[in-house]
Amino acid sequence: MEIKDVEYLNCFENKVQNELLKLCTEYNMLDGILLATDDVDDIWKEMAPEYVADAVREIQNYPEVSVSWAMYLGMAVAYGWDEDWEKCKETPYSSYYGDQGFDNMDDHIVRDVLGCPLEGTDAEQIVDMVRRCGQTTVSLIRLENIEPSTPMAFHAFARAIKAMFRIGAAIQMRRMGYKFEKVDLPDNQYS
Predict the structure, then answer these.
(1) How many other CB atoms sit within 10 Å of the CB of residue 107?
(2) Higher per-residue confidence, 111 vs 1
(3) Each residue's pLDDT tens digit, 124-133
């Protein structure tokens, strides 16, 4: 891949992430700041190949599902990171499947991992936000006018789902009470 392609993909990923961050902030699911941790980001690097293998089968008929389930996965990993990091980092990707595999990963994560009854207000808010983010992401991909079934289309898709995963993790971290705070260090702290 050429340097200009990598630069383009970096810009595209940032664009998707920033649009999703803005959208989630408008709906009070985030506070305008992407909460993130290298631990959770590193898990994505491990799970991404398996997720992509599942998701590419859905692109044609269910494009929003193909990107949206990454957001649920980000929420689940962030939840596990907070609960028991040692266990979470050893949890295989397939354990996030529902009883119908990839098809109902969303319900399994919301109900069984996050502990939100599917008919409850929390679940409804999560599902609505993920749906909006999925629609936005698919629209952003389409606006790029990338020729389908090309290496560039694959890489743009991969960058978009990475952004969805990170936004999902940030939402869950905020739901658990994490936030960034400015810390004032005394002068000469490191002198």
Answers:
(1) 16
(2) 111
(3) 999 999 999 9
Going by the DSSP 8-state scheme, the letter that residue 118 receives in this structure is T
The length of the chain, given as a count of residues: 191
Beta strands in 49-137 (DSSP E): none
Q: Which of 49, 40, 12, 2 is nearest to 167 (CA)?
A: 40
DSSP E strands in the chain: the ranges are none
Could you report the per-residue pLDDT of 62-78, keeping only the tens digit for each? Answer: 999 999 999 999 999 99
Backbone angles phi, psi at 98, to 5 degrees: -85, -170
CA quadruple 175, 180, 181, 183: dihedral positive or negative?
A: positive
What DSSP character marks residue 29? S
Place of tokens 């649920």: 72
Q: How far apart are CA 39 and CA 91, in angstroms?
A: 13
d(CA 152, CA 155): 5
Sign for the pseudo-dihedral over CA of 75, 81, 84, 86 = positive
* Distance from the Cα of residue 40 to its chain's centroid: 10
